[in-house]
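Entry for the shared binder. Reason: the reviewer on the internal report wants the predicted structure included alongside the sequence.
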Amino acid sequence: MKEKDFIITGLQSWDIPIGSNAIDIAKQIAKHNRVLYVNSPLDIMTMFRNKPTPETQRRMQVYRKQQEPLRKINDHLWVLDFPFYVWSINGLPDGFLFDIFNKANNKKIFQYIKKVADELGFKNPVHFIDNDIYRSFYSKEILKPALSVYYRRDNVQPYAYWKKHAVRLEPKIIGKSDVVVCNSPQLAHYAQQFNQKSSDVGQGVDLSAYDPAAVYPLPAALQHIPQPRIGYIGDINSMRLDAGLIYALAKSKPHYSFVMTGSEDKVFAAHALHQLPNVYFTGSIPKKDVPEYMHALDVCLNPQLVNEITAGNYPRKVDEYLAMGKPVIATATDTMQLFKDHVYLCNNLEDYQQAIEKALLENTPENKQCRIAFARSHTWENNVQQIYNRIENLLN
C-alpha cells in the first residue's frame, strides 16, 4: 500500500521510553504513506496532580505554548500534541454521565485533529486506533475517515483503570469499526464476537539491536554473578509474572543464578525472593543495554501467570530472547503455543526444573540458528503487510 494518508491515535506517547507497537507500526507505514501520529491529550488530573514524566513533559510544554503542537519527524511522518487539556472522567459512574463527557472530549480532540490533517493536505485518511477505547470512541462519527481500523493488541479490561467502562465500551468500538486487527489469535477470537471482520495479523518486532554475532561486554552488575545465569528481563509485575513459581524454582536450583532485570512492583519488592542467595535483582536498565544483559544469560525465562491478561498477550521479549539465540523457557499460555517448536513450554514447577536442564544441555549451534531464524521472521514489514491486506480488501 502506497501514497495513502493515515491518522494513528492510541494509548502510548511518541516519547515513551520503552518499545511501542503503535510507534513501530507508524514508522513502517510511513515508509510509503503519510502518517499523522497523535499523542493522547493530557487530562486535568494528569496535568495538575502528577509529576511530569519523559512522556508527558513535551505535552505540558505544548499546553504552555513553549513548544509547537506539530513536529515533523521526516517527510512522511508527523507527531501531534494538543495545546489544550480534556476532562478527567474515568472516576464517573459508567453509563449516561460518562458518555456525555467522553463525547465532549472526543469532539474537542477530533475536531482539532481534523483541522491539522486538513492543513497537511490529508485526503480520505485511514484512522488506526491503537487500543484507544475511550478517547477514540466517537472518532468515526467526528473524523469521518475512509476507514476505521481498531487494533486490539492487549486485553486492557482486567486492569483497574479500565474495569469500570471498557467492559461495556470495547465491544461497541469493535462493533462499529470497519475492520479489527489483533496481535494474537485469542484477542481476535474475542473481537470476532462483535465484528466478523476481526482477525489475527501477528506481531512485528524490531530486532535490529539484537545481534547474536556481536561482541558484548559483561555488564558490571553481572560480573559477580556466577554461571549458569537463568534470567528474566522486563517489567517485574505481579499481575503478569508468577512470583511463587520463580521462588520455588530458584530455591530448588541453589547452584544456578537467577537474574531479574527490570523495575519491580510493590509485591516483588517485598517478596521473599530477595532473601534467596542465588537470586539477583539488578534494577531497571536503559533499553540500549538490554542486548548486553541478554547476551550474558545462559537461559532466558518468561514465567507468566496464566490469567485473562496474559492468555492472549504476545510476549515481544520472547522474540528478543530468540533473536539472540538464547534457549527460552516460558509458561504455556494460549499465545505461547505460537512458539512451541522453539521454546520450552511449561505448566508447573516440575516442568520448569526439567526444562532448565534440557535447555542447558541442548543449546547446540544448530538449535541456536533455528531460534534466530524463527525470531527474524517476525518483522514489522510482514506484520504491517498483513494489516494492509485487511484494509485493501475493504477499500477495494
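Summary line for the report: The first strand starts at residue 5 and ends at 10.
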